[in-house]
Amino acid sequence: MVRCIGVDEAGRGPVIGPLVVCSVCIPTDQQDLLEQIGVDDSKKVSKNERLRMFEEINSIADLRGWGIGTVICSAKEIDIYMKGSDLNSLEVFLFSKAIQRSSTDAASHKILLDACDVDEGRFGVRVRSELGPEWEDCEIISRHKMDETSPLVATASIIAKNIRDSEMRKLSEEIGFDLGSGYPSDPKTKIAVRKLCEGNTPDDCLRWSWSTVKNTWSSLGKGELPIRGSDGHNFVQSSLNDWK
Q1: Tell me, what DSSP letter sits at residue 107?
Q2: Which of 34, 103, 131, 145 could bond 135 through an S-S bridge, CB–CB 3.0 to 4.6 Å?
Q3: How many domains does the chain have?
């Protein structure tokens, strides 16, 4: 059976919380079901509408046997990875991991990627390389804003966004105050970042490598920002193996 895979992420830019990547694998002839649900780019629909779509997608996926693979990368894991690499390389790894979780069969799938690199073609080449030789027969199409033109990629976007929203709610409950959306421009998030920098080290839910945290830490007169993993423990390898 010919299948198509759509992949997208949520949470690349925030200063608080995880980066979530989702891959959805469905038979090519069932993509019309996504249009019946009314799937659209997650950024264009309200939170309530996005949640409705998320629930319908999961319900149909269970009935139809669609493959859904997700990877949740915490703020701490992002920081530690970026000590020796960059965000685009991390996205390549996470996209590949999500694809492999959505389909154990590396047959001649068509894979649609919402490119996370200024060079969209390069992003596709790097994901193919990360997937390995067993995926070499797949057609990979990597484009910017693919979630605006492909219902399947939009579906992955909706799932990723809902999961990140859920993770942010959990973090707000654990910490005891509203963290907002996690994006640096959000007034609630600005207040939260300052509160989360009042301890001996920035809170674990913050991305310490983001300039927002560095600037806030400095404005509080805290001196030099601590470096995650500075005790010498090899967090990178263990966290890569353990990502959800």
Answers
A1: S
A2: 131
A3: 2
Task: For residues 166 and 152, give the distance between their C-alpha atoms in angstroms, rounded to a whole number.
Answer: 22
Q: For residue 197, what are its two tokens?
A: 């920098």
Same domain, 11 and 122: yes
Rounded Cα gap, residues 171 and 14, in angstroms? 14
Looking at residue 26, the DSSP 8-state letter turns out to be: E
Shared domain for 85 and 197, answered yes or no, is no
143 strand-pairing partners: 114
Say yes or no: 126 and 206 in one domain.
no
β-bridge mates for residue 21, sequence order:
9, 71
> Looking at the structure, do residues 124 and 214 belong to the same domain, yes or no?
no
| CB distance 9 to 114 below 8 Å | yes
List, run by run, the mean pLDDT of 10-residue segments along the chain (244 residues): 93 98 96 88 80 94 96 96 94 98 87 98 98 94 96 96 97 98 98 97 97 97 84 36 41
The strand pairing partners of 188, in sequence order, are: none
What CATH code is carried by the domain that includes residue 206?
Answer: 1.10.10
End-to-end C-alpha distance for the chain, whole angstroms: 28
Q: In this structure, is residue 162 part of a structural domain?
A: yes
Beta strand extents in 131-232 (DSSP E only): 139-143
Give the angle subtended at the CA of 105 by the CAs of 103 and 108, to the nearest 5°.
105
